User: Fold this.
Amino acid sequence: MSYRLFVAFLVGLIIPFLSTGITPSVFANSDIDALRNQIAERNNRLAEIQKEIDKYEAELKKVGSAKKTLQNAIRELELERKKINAEIIKTENQIKAADLSINKLVLEISKTKRQIEENQEAVASIIRAEYQDSEMSLLEQLLSNKKLSEFWNTYEAHQKIRNTLADKIVNLQSLKEEMEAQRREKEAKRKLLAGLKKKYTDQNKVLINNKQEQTKLLEVTKKEEKNYQQVLATKKKVREEIERELREFESKLQFILDPNTIPPSGTQVFNWPLASFVITQFFGGTEFAARNAAVYGGRPYHSGLDMAAPRGTPILAALSGTVRATGNTDAVPGCYSWGKWTLIDHANGLATLYAHQSVISVMPGQKVNTGDIIGYVGNTGYSTGPHLHFTVYAKEGVKVRKFNEIKTVTSCGPASTPVAATDAYLDPMLYLPPY
Assistant:
């Protein structure tokens, strides 16, 4: 065998071992393992926090189902504050876990990049060595060897070098694909991290609102049960008047629903807007609506679904779409209506309303995906307890108007609200998963 070929053959055998980068990778692996352990510890902590949150949710269900008294209202606010605090701590830990995951991915990407560079150099070395010996033709190699056995040894050495080269190229391709996957995962983690930081900010706003609500409740009632009951009665009376006027106004709106412009009844097009909830009132002629017909303009009719959940529960977009409008009826004195609300238009001819929010997390014109957090459950507007009111409209039949364009008697001013003709209201249960 020629000296050059012998060297090339050795290069082909030795480089696979050199290219593994044993010395520098020891430190990289150690760092990656350390981060992996920290992530595991953080996940264990998250599991502990979740147990605490579940405990508060169980207590809130008991309080929420009890009679509406001042003592229970304060107790509910205190429990929700503890739950929100726990949620904030959970989000902080999720942020730290995401940071650790990103750091781990950075190290893994760096390690993979180094391995790619080493493999590229290895391939180049093998190609150079093979090229130098390939200058001699097969016939020349046959004639240059004194014995036929030497020729076959030379030929076999060339084959081994080519096999080594092929293996290196396959390994190189595999490393490139691995790095691309790691980069995609890193981008996804960064997107998750941005969402968590936004969630953390919003949860702190919910906490502030909770404290303000308790302070206001104590100031208005002066810690007297009779005052609390009087406040509830006043709100209810004003709400009934606003609802009556709104329904009278909507009953005069002209809208003919074309069934071909919306999904067929029974088609599941929406996801539930809350991960955990209890439906306290359905759409249409519910028992509550029948007992309180005055609230619905003289007819026993409820325009959506009421889903009870603690303040601060994330509200999720039921389907991808575009935020048409947001509003806050509480910003105008006397408007005991939706409180903070969001209206989203969907591409399938439907629109959805999310009312009584504590915090709104989206802006008009913003695109949202199914499952995105758009706000947090609250007790704003006229509400007998924290819940989400969810309405489904035929999109073309709902408009956003000012209350002072509708009112004749109430003192409600220029707060905006969605209004729709009766035929534009649709039963949400026709488009949601089984309950």
Remarks:
- The chain is about 55% helix and 15% strand.
- Confidence is low (pLDDT under 50) at residues 1-24.
- The chain has two domains: 3-205, 233-430.
